[in-house]
Amino acid sequence: MVDPDTIVVVSGLPRSGTSMMMQMLEAGGLEILTDGLRTADEDNLKGYFEYESVKALDTDRSWLPEARGKAVKIISELLKYLPETHTYRIIFMRRAMEEVLASQDRMLVRRGVQPGGKAENAEIARVFRKHLQQTESWLSGRPGFPTLYADHRQILADPAREAARINAFLDNRLDETAMAASVDASLYRQRR
Predict the structure, then answer these.
(1) How far is the C-alpha of 143 from the C-alpha of 187, rounded, in Å?
(2) pTM of the model
(3) Residues 16-42, buried b or exposed e (16+ Cβ, 10 A)?
């Protein structure tokens, strides 16, 4: 579907909608790189679409050739370890910070962990905002990392329009109708 040498990277903060984006790309006909180890659960009813090797990107990049012509999910913290020896298209998910934190808190509760509360969330939000600012600045300085910013709420509000935008970024090779149809607004549970 995409250029066979291009790696489509779906990135963002955890709980920002990266799994939803992977689901859209797969529905549109783009092959995804996933190992299926982390299966669907109450927090991601349609799955996580993760590839375990990504977690060691800072020390092991040997798997990157497997991602050519496919989409792979890489959290924003690891983007800086992508070598400039590959061709990328980055789709970076944005989501309201309050929703990211609420979603993370809900996930912690389901796993039996007590979230830290307002003071801890305020500090996490500060760290995340600084990280996002640094990451976006880093991406803007890398011509080999063309980036499309996709807003979680906008995708849920108008999946057809956002599917068209994403498809245009990926050279109009995907099925926009299938991409839009894969978006399930009923899963938007942490609204703020």
Answers:
(1) 35
(2) 0.88
(3) bbbbbbbbbbbbbebebbbeeeeeeee
Amino acid residing at 110: R
**Could you read off the pLDDT tens digit of each residue along the chain, which spans 192 residues?**
567 899 999 999 988 999 999 999 999 999 999 987 766 556 555 656 889 999 999 999 999 999 999 999 999 999 999 999 999 999 999 999 988 888 775 665 555 655 565 657 788 889 999 999 999 999 999 988 999 999 999 999 999 999 999 999 999 999 999 999 999 876 654 445
13 burial class (0-12, 13-18, 19+ CB within 10 angstroms)? buried
Burial (CB count within 10 angstroms: exposed 0-12, middle 13-18, buried 19+), residue 174: buried
The interaxial angle of helices 18-27 and 159-169, nearest 10 deg, is 80
Continuous H helices in 97-190: 97-110, 118-140, 152-157, 159-169, 176-181
